[in-house]
Amino acid sequence: MAAITPTGVLLENAGSTTFHIATFAATVDDGDTWASSIEHIVGYWGNCTDTPTTQTSEGVDVALSGSTFTFSLGEANRGIMLYVLSKT
């Protein structure tokens, strides 16, 4: 478990919300966290961007505490895209 930083964060306007798209390199491990500093989060989801070695290690679960995201993965060294909606 480690604190990680995205390789980039794209911001898009979506009406009264801001859409954050964070890209993480293929180094994300189970239990890694990102302290995003994003305020007023109203929704989030993630997906892996690389090919898993087995079907059982395919997805990513994302948990939120405050503005810190924790990733749960079935396999180490995954690439992740995290999508976050926040109130503006």
Can you lay out the helices and strands and say which pair or pack?
Elements: E1 8-14, E2 17-28, E3 33-35, E4 41-48, E5 60-65, E6 68-73, E7 78-87
Antiparallel strand pairs: 1-2, 2-7, 3-6, 4-7, 5-6
Task: Describe this protein's structure.
The structure is a single chain. The protein has 88 residues and is mainly β. The protein has a single domain, classed as Immunoglobulin-like. It is 0% helix and 59% strand. The chain contains no helices and seven strands. The mean pLDDT is 92.
Task: For this entry, give a set of tags.
single chain; 88 residues; Immunoglobulin-like; four-stranded antiparallel beta sheet; 59% strand
Put the structure in a nutshell.
Helices cover about 0% and strands about 60% of the residues. The protein is mainly β.
Elements, N to C (H/E):
EEEEEEE
Q: Give the mean pLDDT.
A: 92
Q: CA-to-CA gap between the ends? A: 31 Å
Q: How large, in whole angstroms, is the Cα Rg?
A: 13 Å
Low-confidence stretches: none
Question: How would you classify the helix and strand content by structural class?
Answer: mainly beta
